[in-house]
Each structure stands twice: as C-alpha cells, then as structure tokens.
Inverse folding.
C-alpha cells in the first residue's frame, strides 16, 4: 500500500513537472506581455526598466528555473493586472467554484445513479426509454444555451430565482461560502443545474450500461436463486459492481468541472476560477494563466490518486495487482 | 413413488420469439424422492437447463412456464408469484450453476454473499448468519472455513468455489437442489471429489438433487434415476443402472455408444448422425426420427409413452428390446449408494 502510494506520488510529480514546462513554453510563445501591460505611449526607458524587473531579458531556460524555484517556495508570481500574488488570487476564487462544482456533482449523482439503475433494471419500460431520451438531451444540448434558457424561464419570466451572481457569503473554515444561506442556495441552484445537466446524462448512461450487464450475469441469477429480494440484488450485487466506471467518470468530471466551469460561470456571472482564467486570458495576465494551469494539473493528479485508492476498496482484484 | 419431494407434471416452458413460439420444454414429467439424485441428461438445447430454471421460477421474459404442474411436497409452485416464490427459492429449492468462476460475485467477500443468502430467509443477526455460513462451508469439506469467509472468490480455486456454491445452496437445508452442470467446468479429479461430496450430502441430509448434465459418465456414476431429454421432451427415463445397461430409446443408445470409454482405442467412434433440431423447426411426429436408424413409417406421428415393467419409460414407436448382457459401467468409480 505504502509502495503503491509512493509510486503514485512520484508519477504525479513527473506529470506536474512535464506540465509546467509545456505551460511555461506555451505561454511564453504567446508574445511579450510588456506590450499589453503598459501604456503604448510610454518611453523606451520605462519599457527597458519593466523588462528587466520581470526578467524577460534573461534566457528562456533561466526564466523557467527562476519560475520553478519561486514556485517551490510557494511563490507563483504576481498578477500583472491585479498586482496581487497569483496564488492568493486564485485561492480566493476557489470556494465559489468549489461549491458550484460540488453542488452540480451532487445533483448529477443523486439523480443520475438512481435513474440509471432504474433504466438498466427495466430496460424495456416506457419510463426507462424516457430517461434515456432525457440523457441524450442532457449531454448533447450546448451548456451555454441551456444556461440562457434557465435564466429566461426561471429568472426573467417566472422571476423565482436570481439570474446571476453569488449572493451573500459567510466564512466557514476560512472559505467564503454562499450555500450556508437560503439566498445563497437560490443563487447557486440555476448554475449548478446547468453544470449538472451534462454529467447527469453521462452518469445515467454509464449506470444503465453497467446495470444491464450485471443484471444478466450469472452471479445475479445465483443471488436470485438463493431467494434474495430484488432490492438486495440491486443494492448488494449491482451497485458495487457498477461503481468502478462510475467513480472513474465522477473523478474526471469533478476535475473538469472545477477547472473548466468557464461557460456556466460566464453565463451566470459566477465569480469563480473559470471566470478568472477567461478574464486573464483576455488581458494576457501571464502569471495567472501559468499558475492556474499548474494548479489544475495538480488538482487532476490528486483526484486521480484518490480515485485509484477507491478502486482498490471497490475491487479486491485490483488491490492484489497493486500489491504485487 | 408417492414420497416424491419434487414432482414435475407435463411441464411446458415456452419462449415467444419472432419466429413463433419455441417449446423449449414440452410436456416434461419426472419426480425425485428424498435423498435421491435424478440425472437430467441431454445435448445442448434439449431443454434440460430451462427445465431447471422453470422449477425455480427464474425464466425471464420472453419466456414463461405455460402449463403443467411443479409439485413441491405436493404443493403446486407454478402459480406462486413475487415474494411467495422468492421464499421458496433458496429455502426449499436451491440451485447450483455450471461455472463457479461466474456464479460468485467477484467484488464481494464469500462471507458477505453467504450471509446475505442466510438472511434472505432467516431473521437472524449477522453474527448468527456468519456462524451458519461457516458451518455450511465446513459441511462441504472446505478447510479453515472461518478464513474462507474473509476471502474473495478470485482467491479460491474453481473446485473450492463450486463447493462454496454448493454450501450456499445447502444453507437452508432445501428439499431439492437443482444442479446445472456443476462439474462441467472442473477438472476430472476435482469433479470426482465434488460428486462424492454430493452423494454423501444427499444420503446424510436427505436433500434430493436434480443433476442436469450432458455427461453420461457423471450420471452413470452418481444418479439413482435418469431422464434423457431430447428437443424439450423426456425420451427415456428409469433407474440409472438399468438405462445405462440397456437403453430402450434409440437416442439413449446412440449417446451411450458415443462415449469414448467404451471403445477400443484407434477404432472409429460411433456418433449420433446429424445435430439437434432447431426448436423453431421441429420435424412432425418424433423429433429424433430424422437422426434415427430405427425410424419407421409410424415416426411421423407423435410417439406414445411406452411403459415397461421395471418402472421405465421410453417415448418411441419402436423401442429397443431389453438386452440381458452384463451391466456395463462407464467409469470405474461409482458414487451411487448401495441399494
């Protein structure tokens, strides 16, 4: 187990390093940020001074090592625009995205797995066909359009829910959260639904496919032959066997929701990380972009590590392979 | 026999398909008494497994039990539905399947699966259920059963897994266990051990077995009685030793002749010519007639059930005359109890 962990952490480290090089090179190739940062009318002396201050006159390799060295000391640079340390800037936006993403995943999971189970348990029923039709809509309709539609219906026409923004927040464990108040919930509901729709469609299909397969397996037949109730057959045998692909997709989707909820955050004017990165790209705020992408890589690596650990808990055959 | 625990009368199991109604089981009747083992023999597609599933009420749509009776201790269970049938399954009739690699859930511990099976019929604590599971494992000859409860199926050998399946079937001391080719996937030495174990269990616990198989060697050494099935019908039945020694139906004779053990090495093995007919397209009259060397003009009409003096039957117009030669044995071992 310890060996497995060390191996995975080393792998994760390699991924982060490789990613840092790619990101650094990619962003460097975009062009000289000085042109964006200062007034085009300012004189050459000021330009030179700034270039020297940020070290853009040094060789690329040296810049990279300076950057990595700073990163190891917890310094990811300072935003050109906000004049704030990048790390605290991104982390200040994290709670908003975190609560949005987690709420969306919660909605998708709590609806998707039961609906998928039902659709797989009674695949020929009318309700199962309706569920599957809905799931196709869920992941084929573009998310920005659904977002606008939700705003049109619930905010503009019915006036039940606010159209955007985050509402009041309270500090919990050092994070500003809005889900602590009812008004906060009214703000988060629409964007979370919007974000959940794609994942809901995906989870329904995944759960259904797994359920159909497991229901026709010999061990389900054997369980029925033992007189287990249908509830027990589904709850004990089916759920555990279909959980591996579900956990995989859940992990991937959680990562991508945290990192790239850009469209939904833009449509609903949600002050999260996605909005921050889009704004930063528009103004070429290089330190924010680089730091953000590296954080995203770190996030994915961590989520995948957790998913791998959960695999071992779910399927004993994987545990054995990891140990040998 | 009036002491039959399980009596199947004129069972009809049909599958609705686009090609029409398939009569997978067409008028099968047999009975099995306490502690006896009935061998249900036939080729693939003869309806022997479907018969087993029908008895447990495990036929899934588009199939259904369309007629006949299944009497368990004199009570017809074909009309039981939902929870009433669930209470019969596992408690009064249990089943063991062919492939022990597939019948145990790979991601659940043996203990978890057996405890669930115990608690499906007995309202007992997990601890009591665990003890019962452990005792059942010990009963089928599994060493250190306490540790096996903590094991996952992939940590056990095929023979061990089949013993676990049999132990699970035995949990509630059912009146009947239906075994659907349970030793087919095992190698011969393990098969021998399991057969000996089953014979012992039948004698000791009084559980009746319906042993579904295509392997005549297994049946000849294990079963008390035999039903030979062909295209959904029982074509011959009777005490196992008698049927093996002197088959009355040409199909049984053909099957017996094609067992390699009976033949001089190097000589050509006789076969039953042709193959099993499709259920969608059965010949008129006797389904076996096109493959039968003895077929005559009468075979285009449905053959009658011929009853013979020693409790044997054959579904044939021209049954083979009994021979009075030495009874032959297909294997050197026999698991049949002395009778």
């Amino acid at each position: 187990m310890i060996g497995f962990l060390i191996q995975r952490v080393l792998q994760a480290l390699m991924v982060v390093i490789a990613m840092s090089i790619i990101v650094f090179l990619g962003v460097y190739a975009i062009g000289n940020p000085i042109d964006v940062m200062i007034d085009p009318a300012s004189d050459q002396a000021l330009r030179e001074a700034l270039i020297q201050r940020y070290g853009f006159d040094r060789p690329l390799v040296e810049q990279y090592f300076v950057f990595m060295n700073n990163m190891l000391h917890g310094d990811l640079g300072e935003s050109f625009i906000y004049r704030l340390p990048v790390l605290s800037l991104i982390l200040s936006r994290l709670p908003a995205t975190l609560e949005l993403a987690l709420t969306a995943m919660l909605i998708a999971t709590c609806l998707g797995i039961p609906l998928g189970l039902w659709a797989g348990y009674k695949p020929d029923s009318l309700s199962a066909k309706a569920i599957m039709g809905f799931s196709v809509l869920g992941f084929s309709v573009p998310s920005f359009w659904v977002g606008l539609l939700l705003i049109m219906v619930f905010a503009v026409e019915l006036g039940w829910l606010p159209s955007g923004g985050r509402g009041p927040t309270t500090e919990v464990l050092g994070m500003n959260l809005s889900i602590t108040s009812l008004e906060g919930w009214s703000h988060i509901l629409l964007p979370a639904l919007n974000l959940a729709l794609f994942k809901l469609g995906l989870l329904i299909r995944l759960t259904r496919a797994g359920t159909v397969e497991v229901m026709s397996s010999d061990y389900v037949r054997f369980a029925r032959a033992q007189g287990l109730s249908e509830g027990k057959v589904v709850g004990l045998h089916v759920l555990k066997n279909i959980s591996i692909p579900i956990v995989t997709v859940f992990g991937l989707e959680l990562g991508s929701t945290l990192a790239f909820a850009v469209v939904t955050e833009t449509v609903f004017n949600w002050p999260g990380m996605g909005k921050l990165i889009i704004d930063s790209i528009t103004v070429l705020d290089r330190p924010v972009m680089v730091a953000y992408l590296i954080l995203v890589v770190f996030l994915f690596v961590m989520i995948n590590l957790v998913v791998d650990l959960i695999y071992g808990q779910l399927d004993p055959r994987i545990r054995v392979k990891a140990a040998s | 026999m009036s002491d039959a625990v399980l009596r199947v009368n004129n069972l009809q199991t049909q599958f609705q398909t686009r090609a029409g109604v398939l009569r997978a089981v067409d008028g099968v009747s047999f009975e099995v008494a306490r502690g006896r083992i009935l061998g249900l023999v036939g080729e693939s597609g003869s309806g022997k497994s479907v018969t087993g599933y029908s008895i447990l009420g495990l036929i899934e749509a588009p199939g259904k039990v369309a007629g006949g009776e299944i009497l368990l201790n004199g009570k017809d269970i074909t009309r039981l539905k939902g929870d009433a049938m669930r209470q019969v399954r596992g408690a009064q009739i249990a089943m063991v399947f062919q492939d022990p690699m597939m019948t145990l859930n790979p991601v659940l511990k043996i203990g978890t699966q057996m405890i669930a099976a115990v608690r499906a019929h007995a309202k007992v604590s997990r601890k009591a259920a665990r003890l019962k599971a452990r005792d059942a494992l010990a009963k089928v000859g599994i060493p250190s059963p306490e540790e096996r409860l903590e094991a996952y199926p992939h940590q056990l050998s095929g023979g061990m897994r089949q013993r676990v399946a049999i132990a699970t079937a035995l949990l509630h001391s059912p009146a009947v266990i239906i075994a659907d080719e349970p030793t087919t996937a095992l190698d011969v030495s393990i098969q021998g051990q399991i057969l000996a174990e089953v014979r012992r269990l039948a004698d000791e616990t009084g559980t009746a077995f319906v042993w579904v198989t295509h392997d005549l060697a297994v049946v000849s050494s294990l079963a008390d009685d035999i039903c030979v099935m062909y295209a959904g019908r029982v074509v011959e039945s009777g005490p196992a030793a008698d049927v093996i020694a002197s088959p009355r139906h040409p199909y049984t004779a053909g099957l017996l002749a094609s067992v390699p053990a009976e033949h001089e090495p190097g000589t050509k093995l006789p076969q039953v010519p042709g193959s099993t007919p499709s259920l969608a397209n059965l010949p008129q009259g006797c389904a076996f007639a096109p493959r039968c060397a003895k077929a005559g003009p009468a075979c285009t009409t449905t053959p009658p059930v011929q009853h013979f003096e020693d409790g044997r039957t054959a579904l044939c117009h021209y049954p083979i005359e009994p021979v009075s030669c030495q009874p032959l044995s297909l294997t050197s071992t026999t698991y049949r109890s002395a009778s």
